[in-house]
Amino acid sequence: MDKKKYQDYIDKKADVICDVSDKIWEYAELSLMEYKSCELYCKVLKEEGFEVESPYGGIETAFKASYGSGKPIIGILGEYDALTGLSQEAGIPYKKELVQGGNGHGCGHNMLGAGSMAAAFAIKKYLEDKPEGSGTVVFYGCPGEEGGASKAFMARDGVWKELDCALTWHPSDSNYVESGSNNTCIQTEYAFKGIASHAAGAPEFGRSALDAVELMNIGVNFLREHMPDQCRIHYAITDGGGVSPNVVQPHAQVLYMVRAAHTKEALELQERVDRIARGAAEMTDTKLKKQFIDGCGDILPNVTLEKVLAENFEEVGAPKFDENDMKLAKEITESYELKGSLMPKIAEALSPEHKAYVEKMSEDGTKPLCDYVIPYEHLGLKSAGSSDVGDVSWLTPTAQIRVACEAAGSPGHSWQNVSCGACGIGHKGLLTAGKVICGAAIDLFEDPSIIEAAREEWKKASKEGYYCPVPADAVPVVSGKLIEVE
Q1: Which helix (H) or strand (E) covers residue 247, if one does?
Q2: Helix or strand run (H / E) with residue 447
Q3: Taking the mean position of all CA atoms in its chain, how far away is CA 12?
Q4: Does the pLDDT at position 1 exceed 80?
Q5: What is the DSSP pairing of strand 398-404 with strand 251-260?
Q6: Are residues 223 and 176 in the same domain?
């Protein structure tokens, strides 16, 4: 099978693909508010001949784009939400906001969605040349990864069970196949309602909601001594109740994030945090309302699919950066507040042989762009962060790659990432991602035994069952809005 024919199709559609990425970069819409982004994807995908459903899965800014018929059914995952406070001009090596205090794609999700769409375009082209019933490709628009976890909501509703497997990727500062897992995460907002009163003249009539938030925080601080080592609890006060100290605060709100190695542990820890919140309300004689924001599970690695991605990554190669890309990246690396080696962090976990290769290719950690593919090893690393890709992996075999779309050593969620996301560096990275995923998908269509092996591996890994972090009655909500407490 001439996979290159279909991978080259991505180059033919590069203008359309990169234009979508740049427009999404420009829209810079926050989680679950990606209305323009979703509309653009649906328009382009319909024009390309996909059958598109939107809204999808009960989420206004989600979509499902399908082509083909029969099995296998291979899913490609895309994201397109931005982050607050990261507005930045593109293609420059210094910080300069486009919109004061505006949003920006500091995690590269504009490229993530566009690169996945590129893969879907090429796979569709492949299926057009096959007999009817040879298989189906489904490109899922998954909003709110940064705060909304749409994939977990879809997992709760069984969406991913329709797939034989799923493939995805993420922008990075280096090129490699993901081979480990991550922490699970649950976000919950707690709103307390008290009674306003003059803090000096009639304090006895007041009931402070802010006191309840503070007592809850103190209680959770004591909890930290008595939870598993791998667990983490973070919080942010999203409503302090006002700015007048002589008024007893009648309302206050705090957002909590609970992390653990596995979803079951996170759910158990979440219940303990809930009890502390109820206790704080009792102590302050205030009312409490809890609102689930999002949750995501740990990733189940699939070595079978990882190897297919690795083989295709080696065939496609790393993004082909030019002198201008290298120059810009070099200048960006000089902007880092914390100086250090530019060698990919993953290198520390590699075998001595592979680490030596990375040291050589990165010119001992001085090269400003990763223009090589890090040799594949299944490392089984555990990331402290969280992603709702994990929830997909519990319902179908799933694997993903990282592709260099930013300067080496670039801090996560930074203006430096935003700058790279709508210029040559990002464009070359996302097109490479599309080619790798396309090649891997074609291998799966051509040899169903690979999917059978991936599913056998997945069945063994998932035998304990999926603990969904999303409650049965939860609906996607935008975090930070004031919660009404009756």
Answers
A1: none
A2: none
A3: 28
A4: no
A5: unpaired
A6: no
Backbone angles phi, psi at 294, to 5 degrees: -165, 170
Whether residue 335 sits in one domain with residue 240: no
Angle among Cα 88, 94, 95 to the nearest 5 degrees reads 40
Q: Show which of 264, 295, 326 is a domain's final residue.
A: 295
Nearest to 442 by CA among 81, 134, 221: 134
Task: Supply the mean pLDDT for the chain.
Answer: 96
**456 vs 374: CA distance, rounded Å:** 27
- The mean per-residue pLDDT over the stretch 351-355 comes to 94
Q: Where is 381: in which H helix or E strand?
A: none
479 within some domain: no
Q: E strand or H helix at 234, and its extent?
A: strand 232-239
Mark whether 342 and 275 lie in a shared domain: no
Say how far residue 321 (Cα) sits from the centre of its chain.
25
**Among candidates 78, 117, 89, which has minimal Cα distance to 420?**
89
70: domain CATH number is 3.40.630.10
| Residues 192, 213 within the same domain | yes
Average pLDDT over residues 253-276: 97
What is the dihedral sign for C-alpha 421, 427, 428, 434? positive
Which has more confidence, 382 or 172?
A: 172
DSSP class of 68: E
Distance CA 123, CA 148 (A): 29
The whole-model pTM stands at 0.95
pLDDT tens profile 313-339:
999 999 999 999 999 999 999 999 988
Give the residue from 272, 295, 318 where a domain finishes: 295
Are residue 135 and residue 200 in the same domain, yes or no?
no
**For the segment 182-210, what is each residue's pLDDT rounded down to a tens digit?**
999 999 999 999 999 999 999 999 999 99
Distances in whole angstroms, Cα of residue 144 to Cα of each of 201, 290, 363, 380, 480 = 46, 20, 37, 27, 14
**Residue 355 is assigned to a structural domain of this protein:** yes
Clarify whether residues 347 and 382 are in a common domain: yes
Cα 202 to chain centroid distance, Å, stands at: 49
Q: What is the CATH number of the domain that holds 205?
A: 3.30.70.360
Contact partners, residue 152, CB within 8 Å, separation at least 6: 294, 295, 296, 297, 388, 391, 468, 469, 470
The total of structural domains in the chain comes to: 2
pLDDT of residue 91: 97
For residue 342, what pLDDT band results from cuts at 50, 70 and 90?
very high
User: Which residue's entry shows tokens 């799923």?
Assistant: 166
Within a domain: residue 126?
yes
pLDDT in tens, 72-84: 999 999 999 999 9
Is 14 domain-assigned?
yes
Share of the chain above pLDDT 70, in %: 99
Residue 270 is part of which domain span?
184-295
C-alpha to C-alpha distance for 396 and 462, rounded to whole angstroms: 9
Do 418 and 341 reside in the same domain of the chain? yes
Q: Say if residue 20's pLDDT is above 80.
A: yes
Residues 34 and 103 in one domain: yes
